Amino acid sequence: MSKIKLILAGTGDFSQKIFESLIKNENFEICAIISQPNRKLDRNKNIINTEVALLAKKHNIKLFQPIKIKELYNDLKQINFDFFITISFGQLIPNNILDLAKKASINVHGSLLEKYRGAAPIQHALLNNDKETGISLIYMIDKMDAGDIIFSKKILIEENDTALEIFDKLAKVSIENLANWIIKIFNNDISPIKQKEELVTFAPKIKNEDAELFLNDTKEKTLAKIRAFNDQPGAFLIYNNKRLKIFRASINKVKTPLNINFSNGKLYLIEYQYEGKKRVKHEF
């Protein structure tokens, strides 16, 4: 079988891990990689490449970093490719680009759709204390995360999982399954399922202010926010007139020097950082 030709679009660490597995798979030829522009700066004000941009450069793959994806239509039109694949890309892809793929334009989404369409499905699953989540592989259409579901895979959310652990679990599940799923689509060995609009829920992008903690909230609600925002932007509390970032905590009593009273009881802080101080982590 000749190699299946892919164009990949994504930006963060989650995308990078999964794309690396496709690059190393001998069934595929990666024709190009698309990333968001490099926007972050290091301490010396030097521009930092996105993880996906670094991946493309590492493997000498053609890289595009448009401000708007629609700018790439003429460039992509010159490329012969079977699949256009997005993972955490952050832009809605216009129809004229979706239609360039000879076989399909597909998206890996970090929830069990119809649940949690949008930019932050993992965080919203944790905020709602869900016991399971997963990935969905869907066709892309001109409506966010609304295409037919081609495949999905469930994972359990453990009691102490934070967003970091869920990202890692979903990346692992994607790496284990995505290549086979692409081949099945290529061979027409699929039975897509339409999403039921009455079951749809949304997971809008997280803002920095969403991560603020309040002493008049319950300890359960507070812990859910700490777990959800462990990676970005980081849950924080104004405590004794200082900004305190909390990365991990427990409702159960543990031996830690810092515990804080919320509306219905104490939270025991396991990993935290006062503004201007070093990050503290207690091991048990």
From TrEMBL:
Alphabetic keyword roster: Protein biosynthesis, Transferase
Highest rank taxon of the organism: Bacteria
Name of the protein in question: methionyl-tRNA formyltransferase
Family to which this protein belongs: Belongs to the Fmt family.
Location of the Formyl transferase C-terminal domain: 205-254
Domain Formyl transferase N-terminal: 3-175
InterPro entries xref list: Fmt (IPR005794), Formyl_trans_C (IPR005793), Formyl_transf_N (IPR002376), Formyl_transf_N_sf (IPR036477), Formyl_transferase-like_C_sf (IPR011034), GART_AS (IPR001555), Met-tRNA-FMT_C (IPR044135), Met-tRNA-FMT_N (IPR041711)
EC annotation from Swiss-Prot or TrEMBL: 2.1.2.9
Gene Ontology cellular-component annotations: cytosol
One Pfam assignment: Formyl_trans_N
